[in-house]
Specification:
Number of domains: 3
Shape: globular
Number of strands: 38
Oligomer: single chain
CATH topology of the largest domain: TIM Barrel
Largest sheet: 8 strands, antiparallel
């Protein structure tokens, strides 16, 4: 292991400059200094039970002149290769990318982990990276500073066509911000094997170091989790104001009337037809039930949305779904808020930390108009108050209470003078909301699976957004995340797998990678979103006859979930492709093998298992 460093910094005029830590720098006893720039930092290597820890103490980042650190790059020679040497990098985007050291154009890629500055269709879900070559594995796990960290990938770089993957730490985003006040630490580990062995290493780390508990352990004392591990998610969009929004700052006098997709009576009809045809277990989630509909007036929830029925009708629906043996919960949001809400104050939003003090930070333009990003510290207060009111007014809710985006969104600072937070604080407050969801309703659910959100996150809407990876550095998309967290977290794999039905490739791949299918009545509601951005198939309610036909197909989905139920309490231990990828085999720690046939013909494998065309087979 040979370490080297690079820094970017703001010069006295505010311009961003770059410096390799070589010429102009002097090293003494583990401290690098550049007298001309007035910058210095220290590092040390510490033994650890799992490898070696590189530590850069926060108080060693010193600025004695007029320059200020922006980024610090940590390069380790163990994570480098050359064209054609047979190596491959693990990149923790989506569920896991492999980038091989062969056939790439010369390029440099900035790969944020939890700290991207703009929305992307791909994102980092874990703070680690690895390099495999000739049966040897090198892994880097970013522990300290992970919420301000990213990676830098170079492919076919320079005349020697080298490949490298380095850690990049964001010390500050602009000159006026304070520096990162957390020690930077990377745990470097070495072992034999490939990406599957790396997944098992990280799973073991999560169980032993982070003390995450398995679904099997928790289900013994958490009946809602036990039910959820066997249940189809049934999301029902009730109402949304017209999009794109025409009124940014809405008032009770001018707010648009929501468009109704489903009434409470419609949802009751769906649940009763499900029960009649034997669909289940199932967990209903109502979206757009609160004031103004979906994204209509958060954080105000009551009175409930107009046009779907009365609040008493909603209580009756909850009671009926419970009577039928299903679970029901709600969709909510504490990422952003709208000035329409009577319980919302602009003093609770994040403030920018730009050169000019910055305005409040907007979160988009949705049904409620201009959305303002709520400071996560203040969001906890809104959530706690709302959950108390929801439980009081709507008894009988239990199961995965869904809070939008908090487990998928990038971490940000807030520079409001009354409630300033850093990115680490951001994650802490969002974890508090997830715990409130669990404690108030039985389970927490949110949109993504970024692993800082565990153990507070119980179930996830998706691991990744698109199944057609377009990033030029990705040679293979692999179920790495699934091999780490299956048996610890419940999930649907991909947004595009929502409303995919038995026989489709996307449905089958979701099962193959350990996911539990999800259906969504009136999934597509924004005309600006399409399949290219992750909004694929829709499922519409159009009366009893169509519902009967749809339910017959949905019954097959819950039959598949039942056949695979035992695997949700086991680890995914191996993933094998047969017949040039036409058949996938998932091997679980409880001895169950699940085979998925993507082809149009039945396949008989050498082990004797028959896998029907476009279907699954389970070998206990």
């Amino acid at each position: 292991m040979k370490l080297s460093f690079e820094v970017s910094y703001f010069d006295p005029s505010g311009k961003i400059r770059f410096s390799a830590v070589r010429e102009g720098w002097a090293e003494e006893d583990g401290t690098w200094r550049n007298p001309e720039l007035g910058l210095e930092f220290a590092f040390r290597l510490e033994p650890d039970a799992n490898g070696t820890v590189l530590r850069i103490p926060a108080d060693s980042l010193r600025e004695t002149g007029n320059c200020k650190f922006k980024e610090l790059v940590v390069a380790n020679s163990d994570f480098s290769g050359s064209e054609g040497d047979g190596g491959e990098f693990l990149i923790p985007w989506a569920s896991g990318y492999l980038c091989r050291t062969s056939g790439h154009e010369s390029g440099e890629y900035a790969l944020p982990l939890f700290n991207e500055t703009a929305w992307s269709v791909s994102w980092g879900n874990m703070p680690l990276y690895a390099f495999f070559r000739s049966g040897s594995a090198k892994l880097g796990l970013i522990e300290g500073g992970k919420l301000d960290a990213g990676l830098r990938l170079r492919t076919a770089w320079g005349s020697r066509k080298t490949y490298s993957l380095d850690a990049v730490f964001n010390i500050r985003e602009n000159r006026v911000e304070s520096a990162l006040d957390e020690d930077i630490t990377i745990l470097f580990a070495s072992f034999s094997g490939n990406w599957k062995d790396a997944a098992k290493w990280y799973r073991k780390y999560n169980l032993e170091v982070r003390k995450l508990r398995t679904i099997a352990e928790r289900s013994a004392t958490e009946p809602d989790l036990d039910y959820s591990s066997k249940a189809l998610t049934v999301r029902c969009r009730l109402a949304v104001k017209p999009l794109p929004t025409q009124i940014l700052e809405q008032t009770p006098e001018n707010e648009p009337k929501p468009r109704v997709f489903l009434t409470y009576e419609n949802v009751r009809t769906i649940a009763e037809e499900f029960h009649r045809q034997g669909v289940g277990p199932a967990e209903f989630s109502l979206v757009g039930w609160g004031h103004g509909g979906h994204d209509g007036a958060f954080p105000q929830l009551f009175p409930t949305v107009d046009g779907c029925g009365s609040e008493q009708d909603l209580r009756d629906l909850i009671a009926e779904i419970n009577r039928l043996g299903y679970h029901i919960s709600l969709h909510d949001n504490y990422y952003d808020g709208y000035t329409l809400a009577r319980n919302f104050s602009l003093e609770d939003v994040c403030r920018d930390s730009g050169e000019y003090g910055g305005p409040v930070v907007g979160g988009g333009r949705l049904g409620g108009g201009q959305a303002y990003r709520v400071c996560p510290e203040k969001a906890v207060d809104y959530a706690a108050a709302n959950f108390r009111e929801v439980n009081k007014r709507l008894p009988g809710l239990h199961g995965p209470y869904f809070v939008d985006v908090i487990s998928i969104i990038t971490m940000r600072r807030c520079s409001h003078p009354v409630h300033p937070i850093d990115k680490r604080d951001n994650s802490v407050y969002y974890k508090k909301i997830l715990k409130l969801q669990h404690d108030s309703f039985g389970l927490s659910m949110s949109e993504g699976v970024r692993d800082w959100a565990l153990p507070e996150l119980d179930r996830a809407y998706m691991i990744y957004n698109l199944d057609h990876v377009t990033d030029p550095f990705c040679d293979e998309h692999i179920p790495f995340y699934q091999m780490v967290y299956h048996g610890i977290l419940l999930y649907n794999n991909c947004r595009l797998q929502i409303n995919e039905f038995p026989g489709s490739r996307r449905y089958l791949e979701n099962l193959s990678w350990g996911g539990i299918p999800m259906i969504y009545f009136h999934h597509r509601f924004n005309p600006a979103w399409d399949a290219n951005s992750g909004w694929g198939a829709d499922l519409t309610f159009e009366g009893p006859e169509k519902l009967k036909r749809d339910t017959a197909v949905i019954k097959r989905m819950t039959d598949d979930i039942a056949a695979l139920a035992s695997t949700q309490k086991a680890f995914l231990d191996d993933f094998i492709l047969h017949n040039s990828g036409a058949v996938a085999e998932s091997v679980y720690s409880n001895g169950v093998h699940v085979f998925v046939n993507y082809g149009d013909d039945e396949v008989v494998l050498p082990c004797g298992v028959r896998v029907p065309a476009r279907d699954i087979a389970v070998k206990p």
